[in-house]
Amino acid sequence: MRRRFVLGSVLLVLSFGFASYSLMHYLLTSRLSKELPEEIQRDGRLVQRLFMHSALRFVDQVQDRAAHESVIGVFGGLDERGRRMRAHEAANRVAAWFQDPTRRGALGKPELVVMTDNAGKVIARDRDPNRLAGASLLEELSGLRRALRTGRAVHDVWVRDGEFAPLQTVIAPIRSDRGGPMLGTLIVAYGLTDGAIGEMAELVNRDIALVIGGDVAASSLPKAKVRALEKAFENPALGAFLEPERAQEDAPTFELQLEGKNYLAIARLLPRTRSAPTVAVVLADKAEALAPVRTANSIWVLTFLFTLIFGVFAWIVVNGVLIPIEEMEEGLLTILSGGMAHRLSVRNEDLAGLAYRINQLIGVAAGEDEDEVAAPASSWSSSMMATASERREPTPTQPAAPKEPIDDPDLAAALGAQPEDEYLSRLFREYQEVKASVGEDASQISEERFKERLLASAAGIAEQFEVRQVRFIVELDGGRVLLRPVLIR
Predict the structure, then answer these.
(1) What pLDDT digit, counting tens, does each position of 258-284 carry?
(2) How far apart are CA 373 and CA 407, in angstroms?
């Protein structure tokens, strides 16, 4: 029974902990799995807006430089060589202006600054005045045609195979004055770098890869994962998500695996990238997205703690309550089997009073079955059975069965004359001494509990026999310690 109680308590806590963990794990997993596709959709839209915001800021700055007199002055009445040198110098000044760290909103040094005429041919660029000079950019940079046609600044992505990486580009028309004829264009370009995309990825708290024509142009991913991503998109089923027509506002999410990790991704076409349609692939690591589920593991810690607490509590209950009760049960079985001389003895102070009362009842029951006459009063152990130094010697004509109260006026007078506190203390001492003399455990009941139960028993007997008061004496009968009531009328 002890083991069953302890194991039952532990299993109860473990079962509750397991049920709590399973429920919490299921609810968190279900909620996060449902929310992740919605979050990745929002993140895809956010990346588009961030890119648009940076593009508009970039456009404003290029327009500002295109309206500067040093840029407009390039188109003064000079020969071709003089115009080229002046355009080269103006392009270098524009590059320095963008790079100036003291200027608010500085973007750093541009990858390329080019000035063209109104036909789309390069006049000169920064760094090297002869490189690209005379080349027409209308075919490779569709945004240039649009800027020349509409007269408005255009943002685009410029790819020149074998010469430079994809460039985020702004083409701003150059006019002699507001509303005047178009003289040419100013083109400023920055590389689509991993660093720039990494900053955007930090804002979104997702990994981002910019894909142009199936190749990753820039990303926040490690190089090994970039190669794995490019290889994954070789699969036609996944590559189809990168098609500009599909990577629109209603683009669906899709799953892919990179280096053994599962990702949920969405492909979004970035705005103002007409020359080289650029798709931003936003990736969410599913394991990281479900990381809050690990908070459910704290339930196991609490389960272990409560298991320990309940185990200790169960052990205390077993040793303090169940074992004494078992001992009392075994003692009662012994008595019921005929061992009437056996008496209950327990270590639990709370149960000692019960054991004492049971012992008392057993003694009374045993006395009822006996034909023997009670021993004379001189055999009773009481130091206050006489009013003076001499003991009272009752005559043999005072038989009384052990169960029956003693109705002796002289003894009653002697006991009744003693103050109650003194009487109770003396009786407890005598009871302990007689118990010890016959080899019984004398510490099974405290003095306070002894007095409490004695007064309760006296009140019951007094009511039963309709007497004023009942007091007790200690009697040793055949090796049994009895408390005999004395009626005080």
Answers:
(1) 888 899 999 999 999 988 999 999 999
(2) 16
